[in-house]
Amino acid sequence: MTARVLVVDDVLPNVKLLEAKLTSEYFDVLSATSGLEALEIVQREQPDIVLLDVMMPGMNGFEVCRKIKEDPVTNHIPVIMVTALDQMSDKIAGLEAGAEDFLTKPIDDISLFARVKSLVRLKVMMDELKNRENTGAMLGWNKSEDVPETFVPSNTSILLVDDNEKVAKRVGQMLSEIATITHSTGGENVAERAREKNYDLVIVSLSMRETDGLWICSKLRSFEETRHVPILVVVDDCERGSKQLVRALEMGVNDYLIPPVERLELTARARTQVRRKRYSDRLWENFHLSMQLATTDAVTGLYNRHYMNSHLETLLRHARQASKPLSLAMLDIDHFKPVNDTYGHAAGDEILHEFAKRIARNVRGVDLAARYGGEEFVVVMPDTVESDAEMIAERLRQTISNTPFTLADGTNINITVSLGLACITDGILTTADLLERADSALYQAKHDGRNRVVIANAA
Asked: Boundaries of each Response regulatory domain copy (predicted)?
C-alpha cells in the first residue's frame, strides 16, 4: 500500500535514513527539519502519516503533534512520535498529545513498515468517511459536530481477553475508572460473543496458552459487527512476540503494549483508541442519516422518487439476468385535491403521512414503497408474479378504503385509492417502460370509476 509520509527531524542524516527506508518500500516521502516547516507541509500537502521526532529546537514534537490534532482539517492524520529516549513519561506525553504510536531509535525496519501500513489503512477509511461527509455538506446535509469526550464506566465498554487471571485482574483494575470491563479467558467463540455487544475496545493477549490471540484478532476483523472495533494487543518483547506483532498489525490491529503493562500508558492508549472509534462512529452515523434524508420523502417517510428510480434499475437488471418476475404497482389517491381545498394542506399532509404508514405496514420486507410525487405512490415487488402482485395490490386498496382517515382535530375522512399494476414482459426493456405500463393501467382504473386495481395486460 503506497502512501505519502512526512518525516520530521532536525538532524538531516536521520531524515535521509528514514527517507531511504520508506522509499525502498515505495512510499512517497516528504521531509521537514523543524516544527514550523512540518506544520506548513501538513496543511499544504495533507500527508497520509507523519513520523515526528520529539527532540527538536524551537517547537518540539509534542507541540507539533498537539497542533496537528487540534486542527479539524488535519486531526485525522496519524502521527508516530520518534525519539532516542525510552522514558515512560515521554510515551505518555506523546499519547496525550494525540499521537497514534511511539517508536524508539534505532528503529526496527519490519516494525516501522508494519506500523506505517497499519495506520495508513486506518487513515484511508477515515478519509473516505470525511469525503462522504464533505460531499453531503455540499448538498446541504448537516456535518457531525465535535462533542466533549468523557470516559466513564457507564459509557465505555472494553472486552479483555487473557487466560492469565492475575494479569487480567490487574489490567481490569487499571481501566476500571474509565470503562466497564468484560473479561474472557479465551476460547474459539470469543469473537462470536463479541458480535453480540458493541464494545468500544478489545484488548487481546497474544501470549495465551490455550487460545491463539491472532486467530481472535482475525475473526474480529472478519465479522461485520466487529470489523471496525479497535483492537489493542499485549505482546511479549521477544523474537516470537515481534513476529506476532507484525502479523497483528498486518491484519488490522490498531495498537499494542509490551509487558509489564503500565497504568498511565494503558489508560492513554485505551482513551486514544476509544476516542478515534467514537469519531468514526459519529461520521458513520452522520453519513447514514444524511443518506436517509437524501433518499426519503420528508412528508411520508417513504423512499423518494430519485431513490426508487435508481433502485428499480438495479432490480430490473437483476430480474432479467436471473429470469425472475418483477411487478410494480402505481397508486394514486382518489379525489385528493378536494381534500386539500376543503381541509387545508396541513390536513392533506396528515392524510399522506397516514396513507404511507398503511402502505408500509401492508407490503413485504422485500418490497419497496416510494412516493412518486404529489399523491402518487409506487410499490415495487421483486420476484413476484402477476397473480401474487394483484393480491398485494388489492390488499393495499382495501387497507386504504376500509378504514376512515382521522385528522388531528378528530375529523374522519373516507379515502380511496386507484392502482395500476404492471409486470415485466419481453416488451419491457427499461424502467421507463415498466412505469409507463403501470401508469396506463392506473389511468384505466381512474377512467373505470376509481377505487380499483387494473392490470396493465388487461388494460
From this structure: 4-120, 157-274
Q: What is the pLDDT of residues 263-290, one digit of tens each?
A: 888 998 898 889 888 888 887 777 767 6
Confirm whether 70 is a catalytic residue: no
**By the 8 A CB rule, do 25 and 117 touch?**
no
- 294 in the Ramachandran plot: left (φ > 0), alpha (ψ -120 to 50) or beta? alpha
Here the cell at position 109 is 525496519
Q: For the sheet with 49-53, list strands across it.
A: 28-32, 4-8, 49-53, 79-83, 101-104
Question: Given 100, 350, 354, 375, which residue is catalytic?
Answer: 375
Domain count, the chain: 3
The whole-angstrom separation of Cα 401 and Cα 409 is 20
Q: Is residue 357 in some structural domain?
A: yes
Q: Which of 244, 269, 294 is the last residue of a domain?
A: 294
304-323 pLDDT, tens digit each: 998 899 889 989 998 988 88
- The verdict on 165 and 139 lying in the same domain is no
CB 433 within 8 A of CB 350: no
What residues make up the domain containing 424?
305-455
CATH number for 337: 3.30.70.270
Residues composing the chain: 459
Q: At 107, which CATH number?
A: 3.40.50.2300
Q: Name 450's Cβ contacts closer than 8 Å, sequence gap at least 6.
A: 334, 335, 416, 418
C-alpha pair distances (Å), 3 with each of 12, 26, 42, 168, 251: 22, 8, 14, 37, 18
